[in-house]
Amino acid sequence: AASDVYKRQRYTRWLSKAICRADAITVNTRLLQDVHGGRYVPQCKDISKYDPDKYVPEDCRRRYGLSAYTVLMFPGTARPHKGLEDVLIAMENLQNPDLRLVIVGGRNSSETYIEQLMRRWGNLIVRLPMLPQEKMPEVLAAAHAIVVPQRDTAIARAQFPMKLTDGMAMAKPIITTKVGDIPEILGNCGYVVMPSSPGQLEKALEDMIRDPSAAMNRGKEARDRLVMSYSLGAVGPLLSDVINTLG
What we know:
- 49% of the residues lie in helices and 13% in strands.
- By secondary structure, the chain is of the alpha/beta class.
- Helix 4 crosses helix 10 and helix 8 (162-169) crosses helix 11 (212-229).
- The N and C termini lie far apart (43 Å).
């Protein structure tokens, strides 16, 4: 693992030095734009594939053995800066027997960390295996909400969290934190709290559970926002503009 970190650091340093040779620079976060300049071109989602109208959530929960639960889904690689402990503490304090944090897939490097979480909160966690990318819309459809509880770290501030736009595309309520570009991406279409704040996450969970109709409306608003600003149709012209300047 230490060797992998060293290799990534060397690659990053080499890439940073090579930027000056580029004919154009695109970046997908505001932090990277501050560091390297260039044109902001955010990550985007194919809304024809991530289409909530193609799925029945109850059927998807049944397919993945989640019918008995209120599903808070984390689709990605679990790491300490992702803030899963904060969500689990909030869930523990709520003492809602139906709540489960469903962790979907992730890289092998996260196994040790997930095992640590399971030792303390195994009764609150359901693990699903790594699934083919084409299955992800179906899995996301099974969620009642997507959690993106990033902690305020350098790596989190530099990331464009794809799980955020995954959830937005599937019209899911998003529970997340004020880290990096997340507030800009999500706007007022989700539950956004301060990082490393289990108490605020607990309140957001309570609000979502108490008023599921309002939560669903936020999810629909999130999809509308994604279609407008973070879909292929919205982002494609930004990249085309950059390419055309090179003509």
